[in-house]
Design goal:
The chain is α/β, with parallel strands linked by helices. It contains 13 helices and eight strands. The structure holds nicotinamide-adenine-dinucleotide (NAD). Nicotinamide-adenine-dinucleotide (NAD) binds next to α1 and β6.
């Protein structure tokens, strides 16, 4: 195990914090969890029961995993001897300002302070702090114990040592960290997701497809392609042997024309209600846990197949 990271604090044990907790413990870390939710013990126990098979399927030794997870009475107790803190509280800048002021005061001086924030750059909540060099974003995709990407986004005052330490930490956890050099709202992954969601909502609003059919289009085409090659390599291959240059020079013009015609959904109150009802009609008869279980099982199958295919390349 990396010597630098032995004890982790997880602050905020909702959707993301519970998943990180399992992943950290699955990699042998002692994990201290803090969250004021009254059902914290039950939520942690349920998450470990649900996620342990996912960790085992990724080849991790899950012996004694639950014993490595401890509940802390408050943030101070959780971070007291932490080497790394992963914050997953509400997506609210005032909350994060207050919390990080506590973290720099209470966590050991060597501890790396990471935030899972989806859209708030760390510069927005470290403005008044002296010790901002060790604070940065480590933004995962849900659920972080399964989806490999972590966007590592330094703030204006984050040190290069902290960026390297964050990359080392997430690599140690078997994740795929990508360092993003400019703070931009939504970072990269969520901007891409939102560009696609905007068009998806527009197409449903316009009556072109139903939500279920739109999902079918995605999972039977781009979803499969993009799990293997990203948009740029996909386009480079789309240009045939002439590559991206050929694609850009030959169909670039019509692509640009299409950008101008991409949709702006109205999503006024009535449209939003119609969309919610359409999504509920498609999926509302299944429970959240049944849908999440099916998603996680299929995502594990994709990861395992990609892992085997990568081994064949080497
Ligand atoms: N849900 C996602 O898909 C997703 C993906 C990536 C990143 N994120 C980010 O992760 C963070 C958490 O999101 P989530 O979806 O897990 O939210 P969530 O609402 O499920 O969990 C937030 C948790 O924070 C707890 N909390 C509130 N005050 C607290 C305090 N003072 N100390 C400790 N815990 C406190 C709440 O009780 C709750 O359990 C957000 O910043 C979000 O943007 C979410």
């Amino acid at each position: 195990m990396s010597q630098r990271f032995r004890t982790a604090a997880v602050i905020g044990a909702g959707t993301i914090g519970l998943s990180w907790t399992a992943l950290f413990a699955g990699h042998g870390l002692t994990v201290r969890v803090s969250d004021p939710r009254p059902d914290l013990a039950e939520a942690v126990a349920a998450a470990l029961t649900e996620f342990t098979p996912h960790l085992a399927a990724q080849g991790l030794d899950v012996t004694g995993l639950a014993e490595r997870v401890q509940l802390a009475a408050d943030v101070t107790e959780a971070v007291r001897d932490a080497d790394v803190v992963q914050e997953n509280g509400p997506e609210n800048v005032e909350f994060k300002k207050d919390l990080f002021a506590t973290l720099v005061r209470e966590a050991p001086k060597h501890a790396l302070l990471l935030s899972s924030s989806s859209a708030i750059p760390s510069t927005a909540f470290t403005g008044d702090l002296d010790d901002a060099g060790r604070i940065l974003i480590g933004h995962p995709f849900n659920p972080p114990h399964l989806i490999p990407l972590v966007e590592v986004v330094p703030g204006e005052r984050t040190s290069e040592d902290s960026v390297r330490a964050a990359v080392d930490f997430y690599t140690f956890l078997g994740r795929t960290p990508v360092v993003e050099r400019k703070e931009i709202p939504g970072f990269v992954g969520n901007r891409l997701q939102n560009a696609l969601s905007r068009e998806a909502i527009y197409l449903v609003e316009q009556g072109v497809v139903t939500p279920a059919d739109l999902d079918k289009v995605m999972t039977n085409s781009l979803g499969i392609r993009w799990a293997t090659v990203g948009p740029f390599l996909g386009s480079h291959l789309g240009g045939g042997p002439g590559g991206y240059r050929h694609l850009a020079e030959h169909i670039g013009k019509s692509m640009k024309k299409m950008w101008a015609g991409l949709g702006q959904p109205s999503q006024n109150e009535a449209e939003q209600e119609r969309l919610i009802e359409a999504v509920e009609k498609a999926y509302g008869s299944s429970t959240y846990s049944a849908l999440a279980e099916a998603r996680d099982r299929k995502q594990l199958a994709v990861l395992s197949a990609l892992d085997s295919a990568s081994k064949e390349e080497n």
